Amino acid sequence: MTDIAEKPHGRGPVRAKGQETAGRVRKAALKRFAAAGYAAVSMREIAADVGVRPGALYNHFPTKQDILKDLMLSHMAELLSAWDEADFPDGMDPLERFVRFHIRHHLERADEVFISYMELRSLEPENFALIEAERRRYESILTGILEDGAAKGRYSIDEPKVATRAIIAMLTGIPNWYRTGGRLSERNIEDLYLTMVRKAVAPLATREPAALNDTQKVPAL
After folding, report:
1. pLDDT per residue over 80-136, tens digit each?
2. Do 32 and 136 belong to one domain?
3. Are residues 89 and 56 in the same domain?
4. Which one of 4, 45, 142, 143 has the fewest beta carbons within 10 angstroms of its own beta carbon?
5. Could you tell me which residue ranges the HTH tetR-type domain spans (predicted)?
6. Are residue 27 and residue 71 in the same domain, yes or no?
7. pLDDT by residue (tens digit) across 46-64?
8. Residues whose CB falls within 8 Å of the CB of residue 46, separated by 6 or more in sequence, listed in order
9. Please, what is the end-to-end C-alpha distance for the chain in angstroms?
10. Confidence (pTM)
């Protein structure tokens, strides 16, 4: 009886060590994939970064594809959870809330964002379907905001799902070029992109064509 009772206590440290190693594998793979691309990275390189033998990786991730799938699913799970828990002022316009949330969340995770979008092509069909389903869940949040706003006359949108993907693509591209310490702060970026998004979906009657100055005028063909 004593031996049986003691066995569960012995598994705790082993399990904790395994989880720690798996976390280190994820971090090493994330850095490698973001820097060199999924296809150019080997399991041996990841193992070297973690400080274990290549064979030890297979105790946590059977293949490199499993690591990529895990990284992408974790990114989407964290994104959806963060949206549910986001703290914004009561009464904030839903579109503003989405834009500001998306920018803030993604600017802090440049590597994750890069991999989650650029390495979709590297996923095997079954894994691609899993990730795509989670992406659609997130996209449906913005689509719902746009559809509700259009029904109330606040927005003019022919295809809410197309508008959703266009807006998300625009916002997600920010981490590719934005660097802290420049002329524009993160809040400046939020304000600028929010203005562009609002103009893109504004009712036609409220859209004013921008006047071109002499240097911007297009010459006649």
Report:
1. 999 999 999 989 999 999 999 999 999 999 999 999 989 999 999 999 999 999 999
2. no
3. no
4. 4
5. 19-79
6. no
7. 999 999 988 888 889 999 9
8. 25, 28, 29, 32, 57, 64, 67
9. 92
10. 0.81
195 within a domain of the structure (yes/no)? yes
Q: Indicate the pLDDT class of residue 211, thresholds 50, 70 and 90.
A: very low
Q: Quick one: what percent of the chain has pLDDT higher than 70?
A: 84
Closest CA to 152 of 192, 94, 87: 94
Instruction: Give residues with Cβ within 8 angstroms of 154, minimum separation 6.
Output: 203
Domain shared by 38 and 100, yes or no: no
Instruction: Please report, for residues 27, 33, 43, 120, the alpha-carbon distance to residue 65 in angstroms, rounded to integers and kept in the order given.
Output: 15, 12, 10, 11
One-letter amino acid of 26:
R
Residue 14 has a pLDDT of 52
CATH number at residue 34: 1.10.10.60
The total number of structural domains that make up the chain:
2
Pairwise CA distance, residues 175 & 26, whole Å = 21
Angstrom distance (rounded) from CA 192 to CA 194: 5
54 and 118 in a common domain: no
Q: Is the predicted pLDDT of residue 138 greater than 70, yes or no?
A: yes
> What are the structure tokens assigned to 28, written together?
């090493």
Q: Cα–Cα distance between 212 and 204 in angstroms, integer?
A: 20
| Whether the Cβ atoms of residue 135 and residue 200 lie closer than 8 Å to each other | no
| Residue 15: other Cβ atoms inside 10 A | 10
56 plus 69 within the same structural domain: no
The domain spanning residue 181 has which CATH number? 1.10.357.10
Whether the predicted pLDDT of 191 surpasses 90: yes
